[in-house]
Amino acid sequence: MKARAFTLIELLVVIAIIAILAAILFPVFARAKAAAKATSALSGVKQLTLACIMYEGDFDDYFPLGTSWNTGNDQLCFGGTAGCFSTWAWNTSPYVKSIGLLSDTSGPVNVDYFNWTATNVATFSPSFGYNYEFLSPINLDKPTVEGESSSSAAQPASTVMMAGKWIHSDQAGWQSGTIWGVGPFPGGMLQDAAAEGVECGSLAQNCFSDWGRGGGLNSSGLIDITTETEGAYTAGNSFHVAGQNTVGWIDGHAKRITYQYLASGTNFNYNAVSGAKGGNGNITITSGGSYLWSLTKDCSQAIYGPCIMP
């Protein structure tokens, strides 16, 4: 018996069914891929926080410095007499098996503008920034940065160690090769590996950016982040996964939280003013006990700036 060939109508029906199934399944696959990347990033932050904790165990219970200078085993050197430096990511790298952990798989890929090694790129500008303001504060009297003891944390489970941040690929003008920092050099803090606390806008001399302001470079050194996902209005703290930031905490755990949660204990209001969100940088602490970026959870540290206890 001779087999009957498909008619054109039958073939078109089959193609239509395949197209419908593809339209249904492709978004599912995309969401599954995004979820896998987010989980990978969360796992990476968890391992990075544990690396910092292992570093503490070998260095008299002190947190790593956000930026250390002229140690004799430094990562990179500025030209002239500015000095050599190492970031926290470089100094804790012996405790990290893969530099890939320093890249947020749910965000953009970092770009090598200097023709460096992959290790130097990843440790100089990791996707996760260190809470230098309280774990490695700047001492303007010396000037230098100084580490804090891990035992000084009043609430380790609710104090940020590191958070997802902008990288150079997010900066429209960074191809010029500028390296940003705060404080005198050598001795200051490089913002390329740092995350910014919410209230740091009240201490412009110690901060590289500001919550509540948009992107764009200016004389105050604000980073030129232009999208809200990558950290405009939140000082470069990025929210790649459904409006959430991947955060590592001092006690070693990691989780994703929203920008509202990350700004807990402050008067930051993302929707306060169109074009100048969050009060345009006039951020103060309203509840020290809820603030996630401090060690002491009160108003005793001068670095807080304006602080209003309930």
Write the layout of secondary structure elements.
Elements: H1 8-58, E1 67-69, E2 76-77, E3 84-87, H2 88-91, H3 118-124, E4 128-130, H4 132-135, E5 138-139, E6 144-145, E7 160-164, E8 181-182, E9 189-190, E10 244-249, E11 254-258, H5 259-262
Notes on the protein architecture:
With 310 residues, this protein is α+β, with helices and mostly antiparallel strands. It has one domain (36-304). The protein contains five helices and eleven strands; from the N terminus they run αβββααβαβββββββα. The strands form four sheets. Strands 4-7-10-11 form a four-stranded antiparallel β-sheet. Strands 1-3-2 form a three-stranded antiparallel β-sheet. The termini are far apart.
Largest sheet: 4 strands, antiparallel
Average pLDDT across residues? 78
Distance, first to last CA: 89 Å
Helicity range of the residues? 10-25%
N-to-C order of helices and strands: HEEEHHEHEEEEEEEH
Number of helices, where a helix is a run of at least 4 consecutive DSSP H or I residues = 5
The best one-word shape is elongated
How many discrete structural domains?
Answer: 1
Number of strands: 11
Q: Structural class from helices and strands?
A: alpha+beta
Q: Which sequence of strands runs across the widest sheet?
A: 4-7-10-11
Low-confidence stretches: 301-310
Strand content: 5-15%
Rg of Cα set: 23 Å
Give a concise summary.
23% of the residues lie in helices and 12% in strands. It has 310 residues and is of the alpha+beta class.
